[in-house]
Description:
The structure holds two protein chains of two kinds.
Chain A: H1 4-17, E1 22-38, E2 41-59, E3 62-68, H2 73-88, H3 113-117, H4 120-136, E4 140-156, E5 161-176, E6 181-188, H5 196-209, E7 219-225, H6 227-242, H7 244-248, E8 269-271, E9 293-297, E10 300-301, H8 308-313, E11 336-339, H9 346-351, E12 355-370, E13 375-388, E14 391-395, E15 399-404, H10 405-408, E16 412-422, E17 431-447
Helix pairs in contact in A: 4-5
Chain B: H1 2-14, E1 19-35, E2 38-56, E3 59-65, H2 70-88, E4 104-108, H3 120-134, E5 140-158, E6 163-181, E7 184-190, E8 197-200, H4 204-207, H5 211-226, E9 234-240, H6 242-254, H7 259-262, E10 292-295, E11 316-321, E12 324-325, E13 346-347, E14 356-357, E15 362-364, H8 371-376, E16 382-392, E17 398-410, E18 413-418, E19 422-426, H9 427-432, E20 434-437, E21 444-453, E22 458-466, E23 469-476
Parallel strand pairs in B: 4-6, 9-16
Antiparallel strand pairs in B: 1-2, 1-5, 2-3, 5-6, 6-7, 6-8, 9-23, 10-11, 10-15, 11-12, 13-14, 16-17, 17-18, 17-19, 19-23, 20-23, 21-22
Amino acid sequence: MIGKDRILDTLGKAVQSSAADHTEAVFIGGESGLTRFANNYIHQNVAETNSKVFFRVALGQKIGVASTNAFSATDLRRALKNAMQIAKNQQDNPHFSAIPARAQYPALQTLDEPTARFTPRQRATKLKAIFKKAAGKEMNLAGSFSTGSGELAIVNSAGVAAYQPFSSANVGVIAMTDTSSGFAQGLSRNVADLDIRSIGERAIKRAHRCRNPRDIEPGNYEVVLEPAAVAALLEWINYIGFGSKPFQEQTSFLSGKIGQKITGERFTVCDDATDEAGVAFPFDFEGVPKRKVELITNGVAKGAVYDSISAAREHKQSTGHALTPNYSGEGGLALNLFVAGGNDSVDDLIGGVENGLLVTRFHYINGYIDTPNAVLTGMTRDGLMRIKNGKLRGGVKNLRFTDSMLRAFSDIRGIAKERELVSSWWDALGCITAPAMRLGSFKFTGKTDF
Amino acid sequence: MKDKLKTTIDYLKSRGVDYGDIRYVRRETESIKVNDETVNSLSKDVDQGFGIRVIADGAWGFASSSICTAAEMRKIANRAITIAKASAMTKKEDVRLAEAQPQVGTYSTPFVTDPFGVKLKPKIALLLKANKILAKDKRIKVAESSMDFFKTYKLFCSTEGAEIEQNLLESGAGYTATAVDGSEVQRRSYPNSHGGDYGTGGFEFVERMNLLDHAERVREEAIALLSAPPLPAGKRDVVIGASQLALQVHESCGHPIELDRVLGTEISLAGGSFLQPEKLNRLQYGSKIVNIVADATTPGGLGTFGYDDEGIPAMRDFIVRNGLFVGYLSSRETAPVINRQSNGAMRADSWNRIPLIRMTNINLEPGNVGFDDLLADTEGGLLLETNKSWSIDDQRLNFQFGVEIAWEIKGGKKGQIYKNPLYTGITPQFWNSCDAICNRNHWHVWGVPNCGKGEPMQTAHVAHGAAPARFRNLEVGVMQ
Lengths: 450, 480
């Protein structure tokens, strides 16, 4: 950790030295370690110390962005000079008027010191215990366990001087037999919250129950989706629909539908980085305070998330969802999704299904097929189970689904009360908080005969 | 820098590691993205650092830092050793590397015009001009074009005596027109979707695309798709265009031949592979006309280099010969499992990532048919072009692709168009149904700059040579 004073001071001096009309400096850096395992041993074990400083400058409405991962005064001067050079060669961006002004941020506890200090040996010790457990059951474990800490700071010529340190701990475990696999995962700002033994046991138990999976024909099935499966769907739904870019380009399923019912009444999704039940964070990469944004409420399309430039296109205020300056053309993106929970237990959800499937998680989803209808395709993975008369009846072979998520979420028959934090590629700054859900119908379109 | 790396190697030797290497990487990136008449994003990045990989106590450790001082290198060397010792707590046996002659050498990408020396204004002007043609019809809601350039300097030294310097230069460009009518959204792209085409080389790579010459056709096709019917579901004979076939090679051949996946060490993210070692030299992966090579020496390929990130010289190796599965992509650690030497496929995203087995240029070799002759011989079939969506299972068997456009083939010509075409299949069944591949005149090496793998995530730049080819009785227009 470089520290608040040194980062803000260094960025502040760089911003002050700029001759641009508007100057913004963004620092993101930290130290992280990741231990990767397969076949019950650690095969990759890595550490990284890195930082990046982005400069975004504006000459009138001409914007230039340059970045460097060296934190010396010389390198920062060079990057700032590059940004200026780019701005001089730029076209006007008619939607830019000014960089965001100074703001107040909510006080959030986002750094856990023990997580920041967690060592490779500590990770190995935790994992060794579950390797032993798996070997005793003639299973192999594969997965990864990462811990790390970082700092994000934004300083700009309009008075923003934001700084926030953070930590993250993330584990995913796949247990494998000769014929089946199971999966469990955990994510938290605090490594102490991750019960590695319990996560490993859940994966082992699921793999055990799915041994010798039976063949099943594709078709429409009632399903119980576990939190990792719901989150995987949401990750793509978010990407194709909740950001300002697809919304404004009219490729989103929300475009032209605000105020209209697009799913069943029981489907509610929001983005709320200030809710510490998730992986909270107080501001975005422009230093704008994160705001709670209703995306779909009781099935009704409510709105998208914005950065400052995309918001200006609609004469709105930023919702605090800017990405790093090099992605500023991508508009806002939701990084802290919450799917509303219900009142059921997972057992209740399973118990209500007469003839259906339980999905542990999905693999390799793609959502570019038909974005206005939110059609996704993907495979099930690591624990597809048959449900008969309200009971789990063993594993079945993986299936491919191709379905409109607007249709799938139009018939929600139950939602679990308990929700899980599921990581995505932005897991240090957010996550998807999702419950298990029971859907009346989910379209499986293919199986694997080989 | 080389002196600092060599000093660090000496230090690793003094610490008694079983093996060690250090890799310094400096990469400059320039990225221009233009939406309609606005340059939405124009950025330059300079990124540098070093990574140290060691085997100590018989296990791997890797540590990296962006602070390139001698003191930091020693600190990171110690950290890598500490990490290796932690890994050793769970080892089943000591890591062993296949013998390899330590290389001392240099490599530079051949190029004509350094894209970083070309001024920004003409680059922006070209993209704006393309967008202007694309946006001439008001039904084109978004005209989006881009250029990306990468200049990478790599320095590699190992405790075995390797000293390798490489200068790689990569260029890419492309555009997409998005047509919207109510809730109907259709796209056409040139020369490929998802950012266009990429290769090793200079600005001449972009100039050869003749971007402006294709914009009008792309616009008209996007608009025509708005009123086209969806592709009916069924089994059809299909000609798959070269850029889509390149991605098919990527997903259904390139990934399952990665020997780390095969041995289970990629399970945690991308999955395993159906191409288990007992299938080597036994499985009829494709029909007799299917020949696939891993060729890191292909001129202009985005997966072309001089040496991999373990210091193995670039080479060409058969993967599928006359349809028979005969080879993997391998590393020094994995090759002995199949009693072979590494074929030089260990590649790292940058200094802060360990090398993994990655694709190089995985090329479907050209066949002997002309494109017009192929269409003439495929009456009632379909021509599918330009990727739109992609998905494949964790064993790389069950795939489903969406493309931007499908044409009915009638009288040897392109006829009726269909929107939202999908096709699906099982990898070996698909490649065994291939009965014609176009000749070298229609063969092109397509760059894929966004191949994800590993944890932490790594993005590799790879490529695939491909020509249009025909597949019999393929399931299309999947029922929804």
